C-alpha cells in the first residue's frame, strides 16, 4: 500500500503539483486512490485527475484550517476516493488564488486491487 505525504508552502498565484515526484503516480495495477488535503488558510483550489477522468472537479476549494506540517486524517478530512486503472497518470493540481503564501498538507494512499 504505497503512501505519499506532502507539505508545501504555495506562493501567491502559484501552482503546485504534489504527485509529480511520486513513483506510484502511474500505478502498475488497478488500485483505489485516496487523497486528503488541507491548507493553513482559505484561497487554495484543487483538481485531481486520473488519466482522462476528473476525480475532483477543477477549482474545488481545499479545506482550510490545517496546521503547517500536520497531515490531514480521516477524522477531520473527507478523502477523495476513486478506482484507478493501470498506467493512468494521477495528477493533483493545487493553485493558490490568495494574495499570500499558504501551506498545503496532504496524504495520498494507493491500495492495489487484484
Model description:
This protein starts with a strand and ends with a strand. Strand 4 and strand 5 form a beta hairpin. The relative contact order is 0.43. 0% of the residues lie in helices and 51% in strands. It is mainly β and 114 residues long. The protein has no helices and eight strands. A four-stranded antiparallel beta sheet has the order 1-8-3-6, with no helix packed on it. It has a four-stranded antiparallel beta sheet with strand order 2-7-4-5, with no helix packed on it. The chain has one domain (3-112): Jelly Rolls.
Mean residue pLDDT: 95
Class inferred from helices and paired strands: mainly beta
Oligomer: single chain
Strand portion, in percent? over 45%
Low-pLDDT ranges: none
Number of domains: 1
Shape: globular
- Summarize the main sheet: 4 strands, antiparallel
CATH architecture assignment: Sandwich
Structural Rg: 13 Å
Number of helices: 0
Helix/strand layout:
Blueprint: E1 3-10, E2 15-16, E3 31-39, E4 44-50, E5 53-61, E6 80-84, E7 90-96, E8 102-112
Antiparallel strand pairs: 1-8, 2-7, 3-6, 3-8, 4-5, 4-7
In short:
By secondary structure, this protein is mainly beta. The protein has one domain: Mitogen Ypm (Jelly Rolls), CATH 2.60.120.
Features:
single chain, 114 residues, mainly beta, 4-stranded antiparallel β-sheet, 0% helix, globular
Amino acid at each position: 500500500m504505497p503512501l505519499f505525504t506532502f507539505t508545501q508552502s504555495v506562493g501567491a498565484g502559484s501552482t503546485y503539483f504534489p504527485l509529480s515526484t511520486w513513483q506510484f503516480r502511474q500505478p502498475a495495477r488497478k488500485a483505489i486512490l485516496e487523497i486528503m488535503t488541507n491548507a493553513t488558510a482559505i484561497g487554495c483550489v484543487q483538481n485531481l485527475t486520473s488519466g482522462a477522468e476528473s476525480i475532483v472537479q477543477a477549482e474545488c476549494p481545499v479545506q482550510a484550517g490545517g496546521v503547517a506540517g500536520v497531515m490531514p486524517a480521516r477524522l477531520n478530512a473527507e478523502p477523495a476516493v476513486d478506482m484507478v486503472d493501470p498506467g493512468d497518470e494521477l495528477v493533483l493540481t493545487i493553485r493558490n488564488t490568495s494574495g499570500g503564501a499558504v501551506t498545503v498538507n496532504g496524504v495520498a494512499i494507493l491500495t492495489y486491487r487484484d
